[in-house]
Structures are given as structure tokens and as C-alpha cells.
Specification:
With 220 residues, the protein is an all-alpha fold. It has helices at residues 6-16, 29-38, 44-57, 61-65, 69-76, 82-99, 108-111, 119-130, 140-148, 157-167, 173-186, 208-219. The protein has two domains: 6-19 and 137-214, Helix-hairpin-Helix base-excision DNA repair enzymes (C-terminal) (Endonuclease Iii, domain 2, Orthogonal Bundle), CATH 1.10.1670.10; 29-130, Hypothetical protein, domain 2 (Endonuclease III, domain 1). The radius of gyration is 20 Å and the shape is elongated. The protein binds iron/sulfur cluster. Iron/sulfur cluster binds at residues 148-149, 187-188, 193-195, 198, 200-201, 204, 206-207.
């Protein structure tokens, strides 16, 4: 068994998921920013249902400020934690208007001044909406899979991002996260691992297939 490397993981998972990308629906940077805020502790599929009508009603930052908080909360209720998310969206839009001339900022530094926007959200929006690569979005799928694959040994989001930024070619920073999400959903979920159908099974330290083969070797 060899140690898995980022290069091998990228090569195998790119073959497996050639269309891996952001699964939130959006038409402009503001829509992607709002959708990404709504996606915290919610599925992208649910967010896409909500934003289908939300983005018809709210088109520019000022639209989100023209309604009372309760109205926006009601419009996003099914995404969960709607009180916190509505406040984050309204405060974010206020900052975009006052500090960024009504445009979503194009730098990590600018993005991190927006309420409710952490490095994960900022990295997703910058890379997907502007092609600006300034970080690796690390979510729960990433944390679980990167640890299972032995590429990191930490649950700390910030530490994992720094380690993966060191180990991953810059151009692959955005796709790494999408590949992890795709693999986590299709093959290596939190409660079910289809190691037999996984192209990384020979070298993954968490492979159940490897463990079974290893056991039979020991018993023979
Ligand atoms: S071999 Fe198993 S544990 Fe390792 S990445 Fe594949 S499915 Fe997940």
C-alpha cells in the first residue's frame, strides 16, 4: 500500500467526476453570494428551490434592504436558521452598497469584511463567479474525506485549508473541493462507504476492501 497523494486523488476523481462543479444555481455574483450564505447547514438542492423565486423578487443589493427582516426571513424560511441568514444577507448587502459601490468584492480581503462570509464562502464565490483563486473551500465533506484518505490529520477547517493549499497545484484549488463533495455524495458518505467501487481503494488508509484483503492475507 502506497500513501495516497493529492496528485493521485485529483487524477482519479477528475476521471470519475469530469463535470464536478458548484451545484448552486446563479446568474451573477450577488446571486451566488446569497445562495452560498443560504447553503450553510442546508442542501444545495433545497437552496436552488428557494432561490428560484427569491432571485425574481430580489435582483440588486438594495432590494434585500427594502423589505423588513421578517419578510426576508419568511422568503428563505425553508433553508433553516432563517433569522441568522436573513440578517447576514441584509448586513452583507448594506456593506456591498456602502463600501463596494453596490458590487460584490473581488478579493478575499474584501469578501471577509461581509457579515456571514467566512473563508469557505469567499473562496467559492471568488473562484466560481470571478475566476479569482484565493483559497480552498473546506466543508464537512472535505474534512471527512481528506482525513479518510490520509491527506490531512485534523478536523480544523483553517489548518486543513492551509495544508491543502501547500499540497495542491494552485489551478486545482477550486476543483479539489467540488471533487470531494461529489465523491462524498456518490461513494464515500458519512455513513456508507462503497470502497469496492472506489478507484482509491488500493492506497486509501480507510479502505474497507484493503482491510478485508489484508485480513485474508493474515489468515492464510
Ligand atoms: S477507499 Fe473507501 S474510505 Fe477510501 S476514499 Fe474510497 S470509499 Fe472512501
Amino acid at each position: 500500500m502506497k500513501k495516497l497523494t493529492v496528485d493521485v486523488v485529483l487524477k482519479e476523481l477528475k476521471k470519475l467526476y469530469p463535470k464536478a462543479k458548484c451545484t448552486l444555481d446563479f446568474e451573477d455574483p450577488l446571486q451566488l453570494l446569497v445562495a452560498t450564505i443560504l447553503a450553510a447547514q442546508c442542501t444545495d438542492a433545497r437552496v436552488n428551490v428557494v432561490t428560484k423565486t427569491l432571485f425574481v423578487k430580489y435582483r440588486v443589493p438594495q432590494d434585500y434592504l427594502n423589505v423588513p427582516p421578517e419578510e426576508l426571513e419568511n422568503d428563505i424560511r425553508s433553508c433553516g436558521t432563517f433569522h441568522v441568514k436573513a440578517r447576514a444577507i441584509q448586513e452583507t448587502c448594506a456593506t456591498i452598497i456602502t463600501d463596494f459601490n453596490g458590487e460584490v468584492p473581488r478579493t478575499m480581503e474584501g469578501m471577509l469584511t461581509l457579515r456571514g462570509v467566512g473563508r469557505k464562502t469567499a473562496a467559492v464565490v471568488l473562484a466560481t463567479a470571478f475566476g479569482v483563486i484565493e483559497g480552498i473551500p473546506i466543508d464537512t465533506h472535505n474534512i471527512r474525506l481528506l482525513n479518510r484518505m490520509g491527506l490531512v490529520a485534523s478536523k480544523n477547517q483553517h489548518r486543513i485549508e492551509l495544508e491543502m493549499m501547500d499540497a495542491t497545484p494552485h489551478k486545482d484549488w477550486p476543483i479539489l473541493s467540488h471533487l470531494m463533495v461529489a465523491h462524498g455524495r456518490a461513494v464515500c458518505s458519512a455513513f456508507n462507504r462503497n470502497c469496492a467501487g472506489c478507484p482509491l481503494k488500493e492506497d486509501c488508509p480507510s479502505s474497507l476492501v484493503y482491510k478485508r484483503n489484508d485480513l485474508s492475507k493474515l489468515l492464510s
